[in-house]
């Protein structure tokens, strides 16, 4: 390919990349394996920590990255989706891939994408597959980190990230999400996630349900891998919880003594995610000679931030963002709100979700905090799969909510602006929790500084 055939600008490269969305989701590893073979299998030269699961993947990756960086390791991180900038998905030591690096790699990969489409029976790689390929090339040639924290996109077994042989495999938990691709039962979904378990590679999980652990144990037996699960091989117990500060105790079979840690991230589920990350670190220290001092681990956990997960973006008036985008995510949000919401404070929810999610079940999950909710505002946002506000209202009615609780918001930006203006002047104690799809949370987060500015005028 001649230089003039390549993209000259980053925005052109990004536009081409997003254009691959037309190929949709096509589970399978054959396209990835074909391209990687053509470029000399660079994935074999990188140490990976492979992280799968329904919820908590991103937070667990963030904990792992921060702890390793505190100990002086160079760390690559591959996660999805992004909140503001596409380049958030590929990071080196916390910094996004440079635009010029991404442009150069897109130009290189584009050749192989076209050849894969023309020369094989597999067809063109999908957008996510191409992003995965770019990440592998970036980490193997440009950044060269000591270790890469590697998050699956969807499922595990047939996910494009599953072309690597990691040091450790991690499965955070199992929930009913992406059922159209992964299966209709929790056991089916667990089987797909268990597909990242490789021969002889240790596995860490935060899952506790016996029927799902059995799926992992069966796969671990087949691959002669050691499975470590929370509650048996390691434990986490929350000691105290306040907004932006929680403390928990941790112990594992790899440690002589129990340790106590603090997190800035909110929600009891984050203590589980942190414990899963800690057990992974314990394995790296014990079996792979990684050197992390106790104070580096402690500092790493406390300094970890993961945007859009019970994130306070305005303390007064109180506005919290949470990407509770499926039933389990909504249940985790509810259990956190039950403990964090001060007495007498009234709760407003602004929700938007994707049409293909179990919206009525998500609405049902809010029942435990119903007495504290003053109003439930539903809205739509600019995204192809976003549910319309009126269909969200129907879902919430089907989920047991009365009409008087519900309010369809035609424009969430106008709603947020009026909320900020009204509550700033009233000095009211109401909390607003903006929740639902991470794509929605991303748009709110990107727009919020403008709202604050306009509200203050």
From TrEMBL:
Pfam families: Mur_ligase_C, Mur_ligase_M. Gene3D superfamilies: Mur ligase, C-terminal domain (3.90.190.20), Mur-like, catalytic domain (3.40.1190.10). InterPro entries: Folylpolyglutamate_synth (IPR001645), Folylpolyglutamate_synth_CS (IPR018109), Mur-like_cat_sf (IPR036565), Mur_ligase_C (IPR004101), Mur_ligase_C_dom_sf (IPR036615), Mur_ligase_cen (IPR013221). Keywords: ATP-binding, Ligase, Magnesium, Metal-binding, Nucleotide-binding. Belongs to the folylpolyglutamate synthase family. PANTHER family: DIHYDROFOLATE SYNTHETASE-RELATED, FOLYLPOLYGLUTAMATE SYNTHASE-RELATED. This is tetrahydrofolate synthase.
């Amino acid at each position: 390919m001649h230089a003039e055939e390549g993209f000259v600008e980053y925005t052109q490269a990004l536009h081409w990349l997003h254009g691959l969305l037309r190929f949709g989701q096509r589970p399978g590893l054959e396209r990835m394996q074909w391209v990687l073979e053509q470029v000399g299998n660079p994935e074999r030269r990188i140490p990976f920590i492979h992280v799968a699961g329904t919820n908590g993947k991103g937070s667990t990756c963030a904990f792992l990255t921060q702890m390793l960086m505190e100990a002086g390791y160079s760390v690559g991180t591959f996660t999805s989706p992004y909140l503001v900038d596409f380049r958030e998905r590929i990071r080196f030591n916390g910094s996004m891939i440079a635009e010029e690096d991404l442009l150069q790699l897109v130009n290189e990969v584009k050749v192989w994408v076209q050849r894969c489409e023309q020369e094989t029976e597999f067809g063109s790689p999908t957008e996510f597959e191409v992003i995965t390929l770019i990440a592998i090339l970036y980490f193997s040639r440009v950044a060269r980190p000591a270790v890469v924290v590697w998050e699956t996109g969807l499922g595990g077994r047939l996910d494009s990230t599953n072309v690597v042989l990691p040091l450790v495999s991690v499965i955070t938990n199992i929930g009913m999400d992406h059922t159209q691709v992964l299966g209709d039962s929790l056991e089916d979904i667990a089987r797909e996630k268990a597909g990242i378990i490789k021969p002889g590679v240790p596995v860490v999980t935060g899952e506790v349900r016996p029927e799902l652990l059995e799926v992992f144990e069966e796969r671990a037996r087949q691959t002669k891998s050691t499975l470590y699960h929370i509650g048996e091989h390691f434990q986490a117990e929350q000691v105290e919880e306040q907004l932006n500060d929680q403390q928990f105790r941790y112990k594992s079979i790899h440690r002589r003594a129990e340790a106590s840690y603090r997190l800035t991230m909110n929600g009891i589920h984050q203590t589980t995610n942190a414990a899963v990350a800690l057990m992974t670190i314990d394995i790296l220290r014990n079996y792979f000679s990684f050197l992390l001092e106790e104070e580096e681990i402690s500092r790493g956990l406390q300094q970890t931030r993961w945007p859009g997960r019970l994130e306070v973006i305005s303390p007064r008036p109180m506005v919290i963002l949470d990407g509770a985008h499926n039933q389990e995510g909504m249940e985790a949000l509810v259990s956190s709100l039950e403990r964090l919401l001060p007495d007498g404070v009234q709760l407003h929810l602004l929700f938007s979700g994707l049409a293909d999610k179990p919206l009525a079940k998500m609405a049902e999950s809010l029942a435990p905090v119903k007495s504290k909710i003053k109003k439930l505002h539903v809205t739509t946002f600019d995204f192809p799969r976003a549910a319309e506000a009126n269909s969200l209202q129907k879902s919430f009615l089907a989920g047991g909510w009365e009409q008087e609780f519900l309010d369809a918001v035609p424009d969430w930006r106008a709603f947020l602006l009026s909320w900020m203006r009204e509550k700033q002047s009233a000095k009211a104690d109401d909390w607003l929790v903006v929740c639902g799809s991470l794509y929605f949370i991303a748009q709110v987060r990107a727009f919020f500084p403008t709202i604050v500015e306009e509200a203050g005028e």
